[in-house]
Amino acid sequence: MRTAREMEKLNCLLCRRESLTPFCTQTSNIPWHLYSPDSARHTQVNFFQCQQCKLIIKDPAVRCNTEQERRHYEKHNNDLSDPGYREHLLRLVNPMVELIKKDAVGLDYGCGPIISIGALFQEQGIRCDSYDPIFFATENLLKQSSYDFITCCEVVEHFKAPEQEFENLAGMLRPSGKLIISTHTPPDFFEDWWYQRDPTHIVFYSDLTFGWIAHKWGFDLAKLDRNLFLLTKQ
Q1: With contact defined as beta carbons under 8 Å apart, do 12 and 49 qualify?
Q2: Which of 43, 179, 194, 217 is deepest in the core (most CB within 10 A)?
Q3: Would you kindly state where each structural domain of the chain is located, as residue ranges?
Q4: CATH number of this structure's domain 80-233
Q5: How far, in Å, are 57, 79, 92, 132, 187 from residue 69 at the CA level?
Q6: pLDDT at 59
Q7: CA-CA distances (angstroms) from residue 187 to 11, 24, 48, 204?
Q8: CATH 2.20.25 fits 4-71, yes or no
Q9: pLDDT score for 9
């Protein structure tokens, strides 16, 4: 596990500045059994914040491996026949349907183990392809640069290389294309926050972070709900 001094010498995963400072240390309620085997020797998880873009980063030394990630995602109750799950996804889908044309073409980036958001758009007669690096790794979908919209529902907090991910997402959108992101923003009491205890959640974004992202990649930013952000490419 890296010390605070060691982390301060590393570049931020998003803005690449050497501006990481200690944010908090988690010592309890850590699900060590869900992390990589070498995590068993740790007794705490350190978090750091970038003073430039305000991204919060979980210590990269404490991470799941890919197979553990897969098993964790497969536990999720992703069933479109579940009214609660369906309503959760429609919080993202419905605003986008109102903003795009029927002939729009989109991409659900990080769809998980089932086609869900893509299916909901299909119900509206709108084409939305689905990509996931673990479950639906159709790489040719990422080579397009003319998507009208991209959705990221509970995805960006999993990004191991957020700078590259946002660079790719921006590059796949046409001018005036829309990127809609659902993720939880950090509360005042971060140490007690359930979201940061998920072993697959490794970076956390505030409103200020999304403002930095919008400025960096040329988006207009709108906050549609507490945890729902719309970025429109200029």
Answers
A1: no
A2: 179
A3: 4-71, 80-233
A4: 3.40.50.150
A5: 18, 19, 24, 12, 25
A6: 92
A7: 24, 13, 15, 11
A8: yes
A9: 63
